[in-house]
């Protein structure tokens, strides 16, 4: 039996999502009542997202001031506020397995979302905006990209989009590139390098020196510059690069929706591509922490008996985790030309829960005359949460502490490993500057991805 405060490492349980009990309403609500009661007695996660304040308000306003006084029909209002950041489970909760209470709040929320999806209790807007492959393919048609960008940058059009679809008119929707990454790389392929295959007994993991980049939907269509900078930095470090441009979406948007059947289809499309790449001697990285997390944690827990999924898990790396391993093996280039000065670095939620340590900070601090200050609070973007009309204001509230810390630091650079989080912070700074009564607001600089900061430091 495990008790709170023990020295055993937490271990999240596999997700038995294909069992009959997983979709059983009575069983689900009984488990939600059990977990909600434990959370009510603890309350240490109240600052993470709006799920917990929503739950605690329901309890405090009930006749009994306990979970048994909450109408079960209100349970889903708690579920709707969960955006699957995983911080409560990985950072705060003392009751994960092997604790006897075996509490896993985000995976319970996933189960509830899956139940809602199976009951067709999801908005068509949410089904649309999580269908990234189809949506991005449609937007990439010549002429459509420019039209979408024009609509996104027009205040009147955005108000109409809000009324029709339910995307907030002030939400920071990213630009779509008319010249996506695949075309850019075709015109300027990665440079050939002489690779070194090190063994790194200190870290317990090895790097091949050959990396396949899982470009992701965002890297292909919204922010190809980040992937270009990633290619430059890695080739500058003698790492051979190839792109996995034929892969599908990682499935995180569908996971957050509860559409687990679509997650499985995307897994079935991607895993053979990744496994073949590993057989060719490549490691795999992705520029988006959420995409890395899908293959390092979520899919392995959803498909624990799939040997290929487990194989891909072992070869998937966060970019700065990879560079840190190279540095430990004395294979990281530390000949920097430029200082970065003061850096406000937001640690993305889906990177924090990978439990790899502060690798981005450690690498950036190798740059001379560079000071990096971590900000370990949620940015509030959270996938599609910050885009929706009904949750935009809550997202901005969640982002406020991060924006305040950046503003007060007045850094030379700020950013996050998650480009969407970086954009949300920039949006918060712009709103603060716009609403300032005087000139006290920080004139917002653009958010810069840490890998782009590294390229600047190398001057390449």
Descriptive tags:
single chain, 460 residues, alpha/beta, Rossmann fold, 4 domains, four-stranded parallel beta sheet, 7 strands, 49% helix, globular
Describe this structure in words.
By secondary structure, the chain is an alpha/beta fold. It has four domains: 21-118, no CATH class; 124-164, no CATH class; 181-327, Rossmann fold, CATH 3.40.50; 334-458. The chain is built from 22 helices and seven strands. It has helices spanning 25-42, 51-60, 75-79, 87-92, 105-118, 124-129, 132-139, 144-152, 155-164, 181-187, 216-221, 224-236, 252-257, 260-279, 289-302, 307-315, 319-328, 349-352, 359-364, 392-409, 419-435, 450-458; strands at 210-213, 240-243, 283-285, 316-317, 341-346, 370-375, 413-416. The strands form two sheets. It has a four-stranded parallel beta sheet, sandwiched between helices. Helix 1 (25-42) packs antiparallel against helix 5 and helix 20 (392-409) crosses helix 21. The N and C termini lie far apart (55 Å). The model is unreliable at 199-204 (pLDDT under 50).
């Amino acid at each position: 039996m495990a008790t709170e405060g023990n020295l055993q490492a937490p271990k999240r349980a596999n997700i038995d999502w294909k069992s009959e009990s997983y979709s059983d309403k009575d069983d689900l609500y009984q488990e939600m009542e059990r977990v909600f009661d434990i959370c009510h007695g603890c309350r240490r996660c109240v600052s993470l997202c709006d799920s917990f304040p929503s739950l605690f308000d329901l309890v405090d306003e009930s006749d009994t001031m306990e979970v048994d006084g909450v109408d079960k029909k209100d349970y889903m209002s708690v579920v709707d506020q969960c955006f699957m950041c995983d911080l409560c489970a990985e950072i705060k909760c003392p009751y994960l397995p092997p604790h006897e209470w075996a509490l896993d709040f985000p995976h319970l929320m996933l189960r509830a979302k899956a139940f809602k999806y199976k009951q067709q209790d999801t908005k068509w807007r949410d089904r649309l905006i999580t269908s990234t492959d189809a949506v991005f393919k449609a937007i990439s048609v010549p002429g459509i990209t420019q039209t979408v960008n024009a609509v996104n940058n027009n205040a009147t059009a955005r108000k109409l989009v809000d009324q029709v679809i339910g995307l907030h008119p002030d939400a920071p929707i990213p630009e779509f590139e008319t010249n996506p990454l695949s075309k850019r790389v075709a015109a300027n392929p990665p440079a050939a390098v002489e690779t070194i295959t090190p063994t790194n007994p200190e870290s317990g993991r090895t790097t091949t020196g050959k990396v396949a980049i899982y470009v992701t939907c965002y890297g292909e269509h919204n922010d190809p510059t980040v992937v270009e900078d990633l290619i430059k930095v890695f080739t500058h470090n003698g790492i051979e690069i190839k792109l996995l441009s034929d892969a599908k979406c990682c499935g995180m948007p569908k996971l957050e929706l509860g559409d687990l059947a679509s997650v499985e289809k995307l897994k079935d499309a991607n895993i053979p591509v990744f496994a073949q790449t590993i057989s060719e001697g490549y490691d795999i990285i992705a520029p988006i922490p959420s995409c890395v997390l899908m293959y390092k944690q979520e899919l392995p827990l959803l498909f624990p008996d799939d040997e290929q999924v487990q194989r891909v898990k072992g070869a998937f790396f966060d970019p700065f985790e990879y560079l840190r391993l190279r540095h430990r093996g004395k294979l990281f280039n530390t000949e920097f030309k430029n200082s970065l000065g003061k850096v406000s670095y937001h640690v993305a939620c889906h990177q924090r829960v990978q439990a790899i340590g502060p690798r981005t900070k450690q690498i950036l601090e190798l740059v001379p005359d560079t000071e990096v200050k971590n900000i370990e609070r949620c940015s509030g973007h959270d996938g599609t949460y910050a885009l929706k009309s009904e949750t935009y204001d809550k997202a901005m509230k969640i982002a406020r502490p991060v924006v305040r810390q950046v503003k007060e630091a007045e850094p030379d650079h700020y950013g996050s490993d998650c480009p969407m989080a970086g954009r949300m912070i920039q949006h918060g700074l712009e709103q603060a500057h716009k609403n300032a009564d005087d000139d006290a607001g920080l004139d917002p600089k653009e958010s810069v991805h840490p890998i782009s900061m590294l390229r600047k430091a190398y001057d390449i």
